Amino acid sequence: MSRLARSFSAAAVVMLLAGGCGGPDDSTSGAEDTVSLQVHAAASLQEPFEELGEAFAAEHDGVDVQFNFAGSSTLVQQIQQGAPADVFASANPENMDKLVEAGLQGSEPVDFTSNTLMIAVPAGNPAGVTDLTSLTEDGLHLVVCAPEVPCGAATETVEQAAGLTFSPVSEEQSVTDVLNKVTSGEADAGLVYVTDVAKAGSAVEGIEFPEAQEAVNIYPITTVKDSENAGLAQEFVDLVSGPAGQEILDGYGFVGR
Amino acid sequence: MNTLPRWVLLPALLGGLFVLLPLAAMAARVQWSSFGALITSDASLSALRLSVQTSGSSALLCVAVGVPMSVLLARAEFRGLSLLRSLVLLPLVLPPVVGGIALLYTFGRQGLLGRQLEVLGLEIAFSTTAVVLAQTFVALPFLVISLEGALRTAGTRYEVAAASLGARPSRVLLRVTLPLVLPALLSGTVLAFARALGEFGATITFAGSLQGTTRTLPLEIYLQRESDPDAAVALSFLLMIVAVLVIAAARRRVST
Predict the structure, then answer these.
(1) Model confidence over A243-256: pLDDT tens digits?
(2) Residues of B with CB below 8 A from A97's CB?
(3) CATH H-level, domain A34-114+219-256: superfamily
(4) Cβ contact (<8 Å) for A173 and B222?
(5) Is there a smaller number of Cβ atoms within 10 Å at the N or the C end of chain A?
(6) Mean pLDDT in chain A?
(7) Are the folds of A34-114+219-256 and A117-215 the same?
(8) In this structure, which topology does domain A117-215 adopt according to CATH?
């Protein structure tokens, strides 16, 4: 069956189940003989993890690594609701703690890398930003993450460490949204991760500031309980936290542990 | 009812359950003990107020430009009319985030009109105006499509009669054409309001998100989901109630 036909019939089955409020279990998953490893990872890890996934698949015949990249808290919710997952990599310890509290970790989580904040300005730095203090100037369009998400919590920490009060024009949902506002020139400056500046290339310029060290964001990883591929999942975790994984992560601006 | 084949009942029932079951499942997750506190928090109230204000403004804007657009599309005859119709209805099928990107490149600081607007002292980016623009962009086709359909169904008989009795075009439009399609105008406006109320993608892409300025109820729900799922569920339920009230009120107005 084509993919489209399969999706259509799956949706139809779901509607029938909704009508019947239950009914027979359908197990119509593809009967291919490849094993697919489901890796749920924080959105900021997309580029290095895709590279790691290819490296992993190259070493393991018949293994296909499938990623689900999203905000860490979204991923925890999805795993709690029963999304098939073998590995979970979080962008902060808080969301890993949520998974552990729910008893869904397959092994002790390992801190495998870290990321810090950086000021991003559009190419050419039109507003002449030099440091954190210049972000409080009148008329400067500053965009940050909302305090509810990890990068926003880190922003609040550096704000306090520097003794400043920002008045941003927007508190975005994710660090990618902040970066987009800077690359499109809508914002004069934004607070994003070092890795985001690296990813944006020549569209933005990054400015380091010492207070960033007060809010180092640590990334933990673990296997997920009841994984059907527990052995493979552990091997993937080992690859990420081992020297080969660290080299790839460093290449994207992450700082190894 | 007697002419209806009996077999339509089953798929109709399934479809109804498919819509109602998720709503019931969400309602079942509402933490009623903390519901009041969750929906009356500062952030929730300001998001609700902003949502109602901006959706109201966009619904009015939709009427102001949508009625003339519908009349033109339904009554005028010129080459390229059907192409024009497809183009103005485009936001109906575009993902809202695409609308947001398009608006950004038009009204943003670096956009097509952004600089001219800045010279005039108008800054749209990150303002409540941006929210209204985003909502109007996605809601306008809903009003146009329902009103244009009604105008075509109503036909031109009465308009021709009024004109032959000496009524001027403006009088015909205001005293004959529009009163005839008033129910469709009302339901189209409500539809536009409801669509504006639910607008998320274009707003977050184009307007940003700041409490009291640009963070409407859907944006607040999406943000609360990150840190407080219970609050997100409570707010979703609130938004559902507002939507149901709006639809119910509109139904009553139309049927009386």
Answers:
(1) 999 999 999 999 98
(2) none
(3) Periplasmic binding protein-like II (3.40.190.10)
(4) yes
(5) N
(6) 88
(7) yes
(8) D-Maltodextrin-Binding Protein; domain 2 (3.40.190)
